[in-house]
Each structure stands twice: as C-alpha cells, then as structure tokens.
Amino acid sequence: MNNIKQDFTIKDLENISGIKAHTIRIWEKRYNLLTPKRTETNIRFYTPENLTKLLNIVLLNKNNYKISKIAAMSDDEITSQSRELAFSIATNDEAINTFKVSMFQFDKVLFNNTYHKLLHKKTFREIFKDVFIPFLDHIGLLWHTETLLPAHEHFISNLIAQKIQLNTEKLQYSISNTNKTFVLFLPENEIHELGLLYLNYELVLRGFHTIYLGQSLPLNNLNYFLEGDREICFISSLTIQPYDDKVEQYFSEIGEVMQNTNNQFIAVGRKIEKIKHLELNDNIKLYDSIPDLLKVL
C-alpha cells in the first residue's frame, strides 16, 4: 500500500467533500472534529483517516445531525452511525458520498452494500444515470486537481465495471434484433472503457447482437469482421487516445477501412471535437457523448 496517497491538503478535503475550507477549519477549532498533522516545516496536512472521518461527518450533517451532536460522538460512533445511515437511505447524494468513502478506504463491502440498497429504489439504468455518472464526473474533477491517485480510480472503476458486466450478462439470452452486429472497441492504448461497457449494456438491452472487444485494439483487426455478409456497425470511444496530433491520421485510416463497404463506424467521446471539421465518409458518424448516441439508436 506504499503507493496509496497518505496525506491531503485542506484544499483536497474541500474538493472531495464539497465543504469549504473555511468551514472545515471552524469544525476543527470549535468542535475539535479533525486534528491535522504537521510536517517538519510546520505545514498542515490530513491523513486518509481524517478524510474518511470528514466524509462521514458530511453524510451525518446532511441528514439532520447537528455538528455539536456529531462532535460529542467517538470516532467509532461516527463511523457506525454513518454506515448505518448510508445503508438505510442510499439516495443519490448520500450514495455518491458513500462511494467516495469506499473509494478512499478501498472498501468493497461498503460499495456493494450501498449499491444493493440503491437497487431497492432504482433500476440499474437509473443508478448508472443518477448516481454513477455524477460520481464519475466528480472523480474526473478530483483527477484534474491531483487529489486522486490511479489506485483509487482503478479500484472504483473496476467495481462499477463489474456491475455493468453483471447486468449485461443477465440480458445475453434476450437478443432479438439480429439484422445488425455492433462491434465495440477502444483505440490502441485507450483503457477508459466504462462508457463503452455501458453502451454495450444498452445495445444488448435493446435486443442487438454485440461483440465487445474492449481495450486497445489495433485498427487492422477490424478487417476480419468485413469479410462476411453480416452488416457491421463499429463503435469506438475516444477519451485519451489517439493523442490530439494523431486523431486526423486515425480517422484517415478508418476511412480507408470503411471505404467501399456498407458498414458503419460510430465514434464518441471528447476527441471528436478535434475532427469535426474533416470531410468524412458518409458511413462514419460522430457523437459528442454516449447519451447523444443512445438517442438515435
């Protein structure tokens, strides 16, 4: 665990919890709720335990626990009360907050219990739309502010991926629309696949036959699927790869692959903005986001 982030600034705590640094300092001084440590040069920092305690305090406070009452609790009582509350309510904001706790604690049990509590109130699609997407957006913010380590992101992303795969597996025997096959993949060196995994789920839910190829696929592998008579629609999600200076070349190669075929190629993701000015083959379609694509499927 040596590569796990072991100290946080008060700005980190503000970014993660949504509580202003000024308020956090008041809670420290007036109620002694957090006790930051100091470096040898007297710079304040917070431990992972401080962060987890703050997130638990925020959860309790948002559910009508007064700060003075929380301050009277022991650390163990704060933890147990917040976990019990998270399991009993699991509404959107509380679930997102609890998922943050599970991410920073690497607590799979807390994640799964919160998820299953949500299932009593929402469908999987609603959970993904109302909870996972805002949560993942927040993770993106934490990543850009250097509050998050790859270990945190990988841990929570893998747990969410497992839920998508589990729900997709339940649908595999309900395929009814076999006129077209969707082949889903990510470009070489692209590993951000949660969006593509969820898109695969939505396609299977609609009764389509899909072939999910996952991360980092060389383009020349697509030729195999062009040799048969089946109508193919390729879908790729471009988040990090190709790099900006390689995007035009990538789509030039796609155009060569798709030339003189009746098949389609659909690309989604943030890289699309870089090639909207290009004149592409008619069978290549671009969408800014997966929700935009789902509207037309």
What does this structure look like?
The chain is an alpha/beta fold and 297 residues long. It has helices at residues 10-17, 21-31, 48-61, 67-71, 75-89, 92-105, 108-119, 124-144, 150-169, 194-205, 247-258, 290-294; strands spanning 37-38, 44-45, 177-185, 208-214, 231-237, 264-268, 284-287. The strands form two sheets. Strands 4-3-5-6-7 form a five-stranded parallel sheet. Strands 1-2 form a two-stranded antiparallel ribbon. A hairpin with a 5-residue loop joins β1 (37-38) and β2. α3 packs across α5 and α9 packs parallel to α10. The chain is elongated, with a radius of gyration of 23 Å. The two termini are 44 Å apart. The mean pLDDT is 82.
Poorly predicted ranges (pLDDT <50, ≥5 residues)? none
Helix content: 40-55%
**Oligomerization status of the protein chains:** single chain
Mean pLDDT: 82
Number of helices: 12
Radius of gyration: 23 Å
Largest sheet properties: 5 strands, parallel
Termini Cα gap: 44 Å
What strand order characterises the main sheet? Answer: 4-3-5-6-7
